[in-house]
Amino acid sequence: MVTLSDVAKQANVSKMTVSRVINHPEQVTEELRGLVEAAMVELDYHPNSVAQALVNNRTNVVKFVTLEDIDTTEPYYMNLLFGFARGLTKKQYAFQLVTDLNRIEEGRADGYLITGSRTHNYELFDKLKKPFVLFGENHRGYDFVDTDNQLGEKTATEYALSRLYKQIIFIGLDVKEPFEYSREAGYINTLQKNQLIPKIYRVDNHSHAAQKVIQDHFREFKKDTCFICASDRIAIGVVRELEYQGAKIPEDFGVIGFDGVFLDQVSNPKLTTIKQPIFKMGELLASMLLQKIAQSGSPQGELLLEPKLIRRESTR
Amino acid sequence: MVTLSDVAKQANVSKMTVSRVINHPEQVTEELRGLVEAAMVELDYHPNSVAQALVNNRTNVVKFVTLEDIDTTEPYYMNLLFGFARGLTKKQYAFQLVTDLNRIEEGRADGYLITGSRTHNYELFDKLKKPFVLFGENHRGYDFVDTDNQLGEKTATEYALSRLYKQIIFIGLDVKEPFEYSREAGYINTLQKNQLIPKIYRVDNHSHAAQKVIQDHFREFKKDTCFICASDRIAIGVVRELEYQGAKIPEDFGVIGFDGVFLDQVSNPKLTTIKQPIFKMGELLASMLLQKIAQSGSPQGELLLEPKLIRRESTR
DNA sequence: TTGTAAGCGTTATCAC
DNA sequence: GTGATAACGCTTACAA
């Protein structure tokens, strides 16, 4: 293993000069810096991050916390995870996976990314001793990254109108959370701007729950109705039941999902959906968290990313 | 932060005695051990794994490598990942996610878990300088964990026969890999034992590819045929096309998948499938890898786990 | 059986 | 601007 000392010898300087070239290059004369950099390249030197971690009282580890009790096979998270991992690896960070908020402070970590949190979890957050960022919008002042949910459903609703669907119905999630309110607001505002009356059903995030709603109310739905769904899972259930009832998609009925991960492509017909930039969000969450750790916990603010409409086969 | 020295003071012994109680308790008298343990509990002492890592020339980090170029949102991997993570966390290990085999040795890690590897990757493995284990069976002597693929399809085939399906057709994956050969062998051997003639189609692992095969050959399939599929993805395509053709599932046609992660439940009808113990495999892979690291790379052998038949709605 | 000393690779501090 | 020294928390090697 090539160490700082090896480089120092090679460049005929002290260890400290090498260390400075790495951490505070402006404090070193151009001449020595050149020598040191040449030596580092020649020896293929890479700092030992464990030693760095020890002296900086860091662990180079953060935790990815999943609170949502739904099954962790949700493909959604896989994307987030890969994005997050990418962001971490750039800075030589590794992570652990945690699903139990109470055990979050066991072991060692420099900070946490918390996903799937609900309003009732918030009280626990204030007790955390390490910096953390949230995936998912909140109005308590916790740093977060999320999709611009309101813009997403605004886009979906406007698109449905532009395809000349006459009635637009929102199939939302039965949760009292900011992201759901934002999605509904995007829908409601757009309808009202067009002198239309909103109609919202709320269901659990399972295709079968959505299927049931459509079944129960099918007779009330006229031709030229488009369903704006708060998730692709729901959209799949809606599509399934509409087809079961003999309805024609996309000619008579349109369906628009939300998420754009995996499920939208497995479904048949393939879903028109609002695609969240999930990988990107994961990456940004990593940057934000590492930044926050570096700045000993100072606030990082909020980040809303623009989702994209993906036109496919479930709308005309 | 509570350190070894703090515990030593509290217990009136030297740091080394405390260290020994942790790493070689048998070398310490019962009396001192008791004192030290009491002190550790009272102070809520936890070893600093970074310091341990530095002196042991470890990183406490391993890499989870995904070589398969299919999208990483495959829910399958999510389960494996969570199992793996669980296994690691027990030993205070963290991990990084890697998708590029060529960059695997960048950065620092004590070892690798390699998933989704294909035969043509093997030559690269021999060059790796750190211990690694594979997820997926191979006959090159690399340590691995996998499902007992042959047993899985044997179980599926026997079940299809027991449900009195007359013809059993295998829809396999179009890859020349040990796991696929094992699955086909499980099917073929069982058929031959029953004086039946095997019939195999091979497709890419996409529902649409499977759909196409069924479409192309539907007229050749008689009532009372059961399709044994090498993945749930394939099974979903088979189901979809059979229904499209107006065939009755499960009365006239049966479909059995393989994997049992997420997809089997999203599908309609819900799939009868061979469920792999994926989470468990992840956990075992972690143990195996950490074990191998601890034993400086000594062979760990092979582990085939028993899959389970899950009876649901796609077979009668 | 227990303790002392040295060292793992790095950085902060304080001289020069 | 550069270098010597101590320190981070722990373990190995050796001495008592």
UniProtKB/TrEMBL annotation, chains A, B:
The keyword Transcription applies. SMART domains: HTH_LACI. Keywords: DNA-binding, Transcription, Transcription regulation. Coiled coil: none annotated. It comes from the Bacteria. InterPro entries: HTH_LacI, LacI/GalR-like_sensor, Lambda_DNA-bd_dom_sf, Peripla_BP_I. Signal peptide: none annotated. It holds the Pfam family Peripla_BP_3. PROSITE patterns: HTH_LACI_1, HTH_LACI_2. Residues 2-56 form the HTH lacI-type domain. This is HTH lacI-type domain-containing protein.
